[in-house]
Amino acid sequence: MPDTLTTTAALSQITPLAQKYLESLPHGRTEGRQLYRGPDGKVIGDWFGLGLASAFQPIVEAGSRQVVGHEAFLRSASPDDQGLSPWTLFSSAADDDRVIALDRLARTVHLLNSIVGGNQHPLFLNVHGRLLAAVADDHGRAFRRVVNALDQDAQQIVIETPVDASHQPDLLTFVLRNYRNNGFKVAVNIESIDQWRQLAHGVWPHYIKVDARKLGTGLALLEHVHTLTQLSEDARVVLTHVETPLDIPADLPVLLQGYAIAHPSRGVEGGLIV
Length: 274
Fold this sequence. Notes:
Helices cover 33% and strands 21% of the residues. The chain is of the alpha/beta class. An 8-stranded mixed barrel has the order 3-4-5-6-7-8-9-10, surrounded by 4 helices.
């Protein structure tokens, strides 16, 4: 079933504040401006001369394959580049201040492109592990100001923490609480069911994401998924890295994400197709 982010579909859905802001952006890279519009109307972030674009990967219901969310990824705005690893960007940042600045720029680019594309599903946005430790004050407050300025619903944004954060329960609890207090939904990435058992009594995410490849195959996979859904309480379980088709019973309440569903796409020409 198609679920495409298209500029045309978005024209009647953009809020007046978001429309005004998008119209204020220059077309093409401009000295002194960190955001600009590309030839296709998408928003590009300027990181010391490197153009940062967005790609979106759908998250679907296992049974119906209905799209219920999109996760945003960084990509190079240059058509000559095959891809862009955000880890390379973050590791190249000289200090924590730059890590924070790049992280927030990436999330702003993704939010704006989600608006331009007319996305009506929850938007999953990653935060880098270094940012979690570097920010000493209220996590989510600065980004909430961006969301408010564009008149967007924070409840439609899911802040996703990396696997590394799940090895630091106290920090993870603090960070998730702050993002929730700022109105966002939250997702955690875990490595195993045992790890979730250790976290379950201290963190309360809306989504629990786990690499499907780490849960085995066949009946073992189904048993592990069933156990995780039983332990998840109100959180939705998302199986990530679904690279080959999975035979999931329709009554098993899990979500799927991976190349077997759809590759990340800028969504300009029907890329987000399930």
